[in-house]
Amino acid sequence: MADDKAQIGVYGLGTMGSALALNMAEKGFRVAVTNREVEWIAEFMKEAGDLANALVAHDTLEAFVAGLKTPRVILFMIPSGKPMDMMIEAVAPLLEDGDTIIDGGNANFHDTRRRSAALAEKGLHFVGMGVSGGEKGARHGPSMMVGGSDHSWAQLRNVLRAIAARYEDEPCVDHLGPDGAGHFVKTVHNGIEYADMQVIAEIYALLHYGAVWPPAEIGKLFEAWNEGPLKSYLVEITGQLLQYHDPKTGHPVVDVIKDAAGQKGTGRWTVVEAVRMGQAANMIEAAVGARSWSSEKDTRQSAQTILGGARGALEVDAGTLSEAFMAARILCYAQGFRVLAATSEEYDWTLDFARIAEVWRAGCIIRSALLDDISEAFRGELPHGQLILTPRFASRLTECLPALRKVVGDAVAGGHAIPALSAALQWYDTMRQGFGTANIIQAQRDFFGYHGFERLGEEGVHHGPWWD
Ligand code: 6PG
């Protein structure tokens, strides 16, 4: 009976897929589910409890597809890359004109563009959807960034708006542009996430190694910051996790965690794309680089002996640190949005930056009080496309910059490693100099390679007197 058919299908019952399927079922949608390993399906249905009434489990891909209302909508929550290509190959022959396949993983947007184009030739629609917020977010309200056709958005809108996180009753999801736009916005979200996390880690290190504050005390400071303008999910969870003790040893739990960070690629893709677009998101690059260096633990341990690892004592003032943090956070978001703007122009996406900031205000990992101000700033005039030049942020930066300069200066003098905080200051100082250093670069290029340069106030290509 047509009425029994599900409104949406979720393929992939791992952590995120299960959570999203349950979220949809709870919001009253009839959801078909299946999984490559069929034995997971019964387990999932058992754990679904009462929500199982809204879920229809299938053992085969054929039955799953046949159990969906047409035009169909299928959300794939599977590992990105090759598995997605294999899945598309398997499912496409079972689909019909107007059906939509959604990739809800952290995919590279170039792959999403390629897949969209290939499926469009078969009359099928492909949506690249960034989903942020981890398992809890997926289950109770994620932030979602959708890229795809208007047709797919019309099919999906009701479900996604129902399951999304809400900021003052406004769902944190939107159709941001075609093909790869959603996945790219999620990629840059993660780039900002990397940089904000690194800034937090550096602030922790200055307090802990420079001012010898115990982790729990630093946790309390983060908790206090979370009541003010620095309020954000990452500040909140850092405040909490710093106060945990390891049950095995009784030490603060952060002291027993190996200082080697993982990374799956989205931070790196942001940097690669920034460079390709002629931008330099140096804070995000610093954060990606810091994770890479962190994984060279053995080398760093040897270097500490060979090169000396002493860090000087620091006198830190919590108020100054909080202002430095605010300056760095503004600069980090500004870099992320700049990369988005350049990419949007390259691919004709016409991204709505105010909307993106709004979609990030709840549910996602980088949600923070600042995003409300950012969305307002994007609704106004944006001089040279730069958030840092809007009146609101220019004046906030002017207020906070002395603190950033003091923190970076003291930390550098004391031999503390602060790649992201110092990158923030370097970007700021570079951008505020109307006359920079590139005259020397141009002279060198012309001197050794006859590359030519522009003269101030004159048209055309010129060469130096060294060629006369
Ligand atoms: C989110 C997160 C999430 C995840 C990424 C980043 O928005 O919910 O960004 O997608 O944390 O996988 O992971 P890595 O730190 O491993 O690159």
UniProtKB/TrEMBL annotation:
Position of the signal peptide: none
InterPro entries: 6-PGluconate_DH-like_C_sf, 6PGD_dom2, 6PGDH_C, 6PGDH_Gnd/GntZ, 6PGDH_NADP-bd, 6PGdom_BS, NAD(P)-bd_dom_sf, Pgluconate_DH
UniProt key word NADP: yes
Record field: catalytic activity: 6-phospho-D-gluconate + NADP(+) = D-ribulose 5-phosphate + CO2 + NADPH
Keyword Glycoprotein set for record: no
Keyword line: Gluconate utilization, NADP, Oxidoreductase, Pentose shunt
Enzyme Commission code: 1.1.1.44
Span of domain 6-phosphogluconate dehydrogenase C-terminal: 182-467
One of the record's GO molecular function terms: phosphogluconate dehydrogenase (decarboxylating) activity
Entry-linked PROSITE patterns: 6PGD
Pathway in which the depicted protein is active: Carbohydrate degradation; pentose phosphate pathway; D-ribulose 5-phosphate from D-glucose 6-phosphate (oxidative stage): step 3/3
Stored SMART domains: 6PGD (SM01350)
Entry similarity comment: Belongs to the 6-phosphogluconate dehydrogenase family.
The protein's role, per its UniProt record: Catalyzes the oxidative decarboxylation of 6-phosphogluconate to ribulose 5-phosphate and CO(2), with concomitant reduction of NADP to NADPH.
Known partners and oligomeric status: Homodimer.
The protein's name in its UniProt record: 6-phosphogluconate dehydrogenase, decarboxylating
